Amino acid sequence: MLCVKYLLEPAMSTVTLSSKGQIALPVELRKRLGLATGSRLEITEEAGGLLLKPVHTIAPVALEGLSGMVKAQATGKPRSLDDFDAASLLAHRDRSQP
């Protein structure tokens, strides 16, 4: 959790609220937290101040684009859902045992 007041006090930094309600975070803080243009911050009002917390989102991925990523070790062929079915795995194990 990022508390701006706590992080800014030791360096004695202050920020100024613009006429549009914007603030500029010091570059050292942005670098340390991995914040760049367009980064999202969650703001919460708490007793005695505000709490800013970076929101790190994971981009949605289409499942179709993931097909073929899991490959069988021996053959390198893409796996099907049947390959992961418990009954299929047991049958394969039984066939491979003498």
Explained architecture:
The chain is rod-shaped, with a radius of gyration of 26 Å. A hairpin with a 2-residue loop joins strand 1 (40-46) and strand 2 (49-55). It has three helices and two strands, in the order ααββα. With 98 residues, it is an alpha+beta fold. The protein has a two-stranded antiparallel ribbon with strand order 1-2. It is 23% helix and 14% strand. It folds into two domains: 4-55, Pemi-like Protein 1, Chain: D (Ribbon), CATH 2.10.260.10; 71-96, no CATH class. The protein starts with a helix and ends with a helix.
Q: Which SSEs are present, and which pair or pack?
A:
Elements: H1 4-8, H2 27-33, E1 40-46, E2 49-55, H3 86-96
Antiparallel strand pairs: 1-2
Query: Got a strand count?
Result: 2
- Mean pLDDT, all residues: 77
Structural class by secondary-structure content: alpha+beta
Over all CA atoms, what is the radius of gyration?
26 Å
Using the alpha-carbon principal axes, give the shape.
rod-shaped
Overall number of structural domains? 2
Low-confidence runs of at least 5 consecutive residues: 6-11
Looking across the biggest beta sheet, what order are the strands in? 1-2
CATH topology of the largest domain: Pemi-like Protein 1, Chain: D
Alpha plus pi helix count: 3
- Share of helix among residues? 10-25%
CATH architecture of the largest domain: Ribbon
CATH class of the largest domain: Mainly Beta
Give the biggest beta sheet: 2 strands, antiparallel
Distance between the termini: 57 Å
Approximate strand percentage: 5-15%
Secondary-structure element series? HHEEH
